[in-house]
Amino acid sequence: MPHLHFKGKTFVQNHHLAVPFHELIPVAEKGLSAKPSLHDNLILQGDNLKALKALLPTYSGKVKCIYIDPPYNTGNEGWAYNDNVNSPMMQSWLGQTVDRENLTRHDKWCCMMLPRLKLLRELLTEDGAIFVSIDDNEVHHLRCLMDEVFGEENFVANVVWQKRYASSSDNQGIAPMHPYHCLPKI
């Protein structure tokens, strides 16, 4: 099976293991139930890598369906790489906004996604499914990462939908009118 190679991959390959566990603490005033509980529907607020790691002790192998909507990496979102990976190169990436002119924006996106996908894989049941929204900027990188983490034999389909209707297009040739949803099965 082919593997995707990108700048920083060796440093993030096992980064999800180095992320410390954090305790989930319910906030009563933000909940709907009389007694706050971590065994009810949850909304987590915070860094997504830490939140995913905090879910593992209770929900490892118990989640049937996951939907994520990561940055599309168009260069317009204003996202910044923020994983504190033990690498001088990646330390220099911390807090820098990833824009269209950034020549390493695809590497940074892949470095951000790989540890999260690995933690998500740990949360899924054996017959669970993960849905990921993405567009043309990173669909090819996402597919390679998903195949690597979930196994290419588990890929089901790309679901494509028309995000806007246009009777005429201002693009030359083919109009970019479809985002993707990657659907691997486990």
Description:
With 186 residues, this protein is α+β, with helices and mostly antiparallel strands. The mean pLDDT is 87. The protein has one domain (9-73, 115-184). Helix 3 (48-59) packs parallel to helix 5 (105-123) and helix 5 (105-123) packs parallel to helix 6. It has 6 helices and 4 strands. The two termini are 17 Å apart. A 4-stranded mixed β-sheet has the order 1-2-4-3.
The ordered H/E elements are: HHHEHHEHEE
Shape: globular
Strand content: 15-25%
Distance between the first and last residues' Cα: 17 Å
Radius of gyration: 18 Å
Strand tally = 4
Assembly type of the shown chains? Answer: single chain
User: What percent of residues adopt helix (DSSP H or I)?
Assistant: 25-40%
- Average of the residue pLDDT scores: 87
Number of helices: 6
Q: Give start-end ranges of low-pLDDT stretches.
A: none
- Structural class, from secondary structure content? alpha+beta
Reading side by side through the largest sheet, how are the strands ordered?
A: 1-2-4-3
Total of domains:
1
Q: Give the biggest sheet.
A: 4 strands, mixed
Topology:
Layout: H1 9-12, H2 15-18, H3 48-59, E1 63-68, H4 88-91, H5 105-123, E2 124-134, H6 139-150, E3 155-160, E4 180-184
Parallel strand pairs: 1-2
Antiparallel strand pairs: 2-4, 3-4
Keywords:
15% strand, 6 helices, 4 strands, alpha+beta
What is the structure about, briefly put?
By secondary structure, the chain is α+β, with helices and mostly antiparallel strands.
